[in-house]
Design goal:
2 copies of one chain form a homodimer.
Chain A lengths: L12 H9 L4 H9 L5 H8 L3 H13 L3 E4 L9 E4 L1 H4 L2 H14 L8 E5 L11 E2 L5 E2 L4 E5 L12
Chain A binds a DNA duplex (30 and 30 nucleotides) through helix 3 and helix 4.
DNA sequence: CAATCAGGTTTAATAATGCAACCAGACTGG
DNA sequence: CCAGTCTGGTTGCATTATTAAACCTGATTG
């Protein structure tokens, strides 16, 4: 089998997250959802992807608890896709992606929006990692520690 | 043409970031690189991906300025792949992905590591978004503002 | 009741992925 | 210095995934 090597059983949390929404379109769907898109057609015209792909992506995102379908909202008997709490939790990842592009993109002048505080319209601060006692941490200041009670991911023994 | 719809010309910074390292393996390669992997073979055994895929991924990551090749380091006349500053800038994204899994994964007991402050071994704080005057912001507290001097991404006119 | 639209599914083409085999240059041992 | 082996790939081919376009169904509009 040449299957697409699912990372679901991996013990790395980064791989596990990518397994849930790490493909090309899913994050963009989530981005649009967090910007207010709700209807199939809205996503489709915004993203310009094929309808079958959108349909499967929406379905798996619903299955995985990122999106949920709610019945109506504007009267018509259709469904809408809105983010669950689990889906809203992806927001920091979107912000991190955005800020990376703002800092490192080769052509930053092609970026047409920036993220601002709704209250006063000022740009938000850059995401930063802090220690428990408030020191700013870079990658080199951190390390990975094995979890004590890490239940091994199931592996076929033989 | 049924090409893979590159997002490079998109004006959304999230899409632009995904275009650079948003595929299945690239982020995992970057993760391993930030954990100390340097050699082709290290990446291959760590990730378990096909060598041809690894070769093309490493090549494009170098082309895009995420990784750079440095000559030797252990004497032998081979090359090593290390993160550039642009690549190290991806670290917050990895942290955000990790923290999402820690918070929302269905089987958090299968996660075997957690990120700690190297200085005292304590877990790091959760990434959080702040306004310029220090208020904690959720997605709903933010909005997108068009950039004044947004040079339009080139589009074929007709 | 014909037309249209939202929200998909099906079909057939093309592109990407995965595995295994192959290959070249650097090292190793005798 | 010659065979064997390791690193770091490339090449070929089978399997998947992605895509555009056609089609379909139920709801709404005229």
């Amino acid at each position: 089998m040449v299957k697409r090597t699912s990372l679901a059983g991996d013990s790395c949390p980064i791989a596990r997250a990518l397994d849930v929404f790490g493909d090309w379109w899913s994050l963009l769907i989530i981005r649009d959802a967090s910007l207010g898109c709700r209807r199939f057609g809205e996503f489709q015209t915004s993203l310009g992807l094929a309808k079958n792909i959108l349909a499967t992506r929406l379905r798996t995102l619903v299955e995985r608890g990122i999106l949920k379908m709610i019945p109506a909202s504007d009267g018509s008997a259709y469904q809408e896709y809105v983010l669950s709490p689990k889906g809203r939790g992806i927001f920091p990842i979107l912000v991190a992606l955005r800020q990376w592009s703002e800092e490192f993109d080769e052509h930053p002048n092609e970026i047409d929006t920036f993220l601002v505080d709704r209250e006063n319209g000022k740009p938000v601060q850059k995401l930063a990692l802090y220690s428990q006692d408030g020191r700013l941490l870079s990658a080199a200041d951190t390390t990975l520690k094995p979890r004590a009670a890490a239940k091994r991911a199931r592996r076929v023994p033989a």
